[in-house]
Amino acid sequence: MTTRTDTVLRLLAERASCRDFTDEQLEDSLVDEVLSAAVRAPTAFNFQPYSFVVVRDPEVRAALSRIAGGQRHVVGAPVFVVLCADIGRIEELCELPGQQLVSGEHPDALLSSVIDTSLAGMCATLAAESLGLGTVMVGGIRNNPSATAELLGMPPGVFPVFGLCLGRPATGPAAPRPRLRTELVVHRDRYDARSGALPPRPAATGLISPAGEVTADDRVEWQAQIDKGRRSLGRLRAPAWRSPAADPVPAA
Description:
By secondary structure, the protein is an alpha+beta fold. Helix content is 36%, strand content 15%.
């Protein structure tokens, strides 16, 4: 009989991004333990179409920070893991050298690679936080995916999805940010557009937090994040990444 615990539920309820790290270096064995947990994530057909680039070099992290818009934690964390979708892995495993799997005939190869990379990244995050490490995911390395790929020597068919800062937290645990109430994102049997509609006023967004009452400041911060995301979408309308055929292909 399997014994059930609420460890993962508590980790998720208390999870918050860490952006301030100590100077303490992380042992290779500890980083390897985190990444060994990452590959236990679900993966379509067991392709595992991802690769992890562990960046410790301060100059390389500084360059990645600039690509990400000057996010200081990319430099502040002793380890920055770049999680890459690796379509070349699918080609290799299926003995399809030189095939352009993200062409119109195989768009799901791209989607599966990004999904599996993201799942692995979440498993890495939970594993790291269970070991007392702080983490924060950084999507800003996609501000210029070609520059990131060139900096890290990625071959065609490999492209950065996001980065993950790993380190010892310099301060106490941050409070988890509020999220939308479950009833706004869960549908029963069929999608019901009415049930998932957001309330009209930011002051009544239906936010909830495991830390307790959602304050007016929480709501203002939430709206500020939405506004920041909207500006980012406006800047990044058609980023390019390097396809297996080495020709830039617009992101889907």
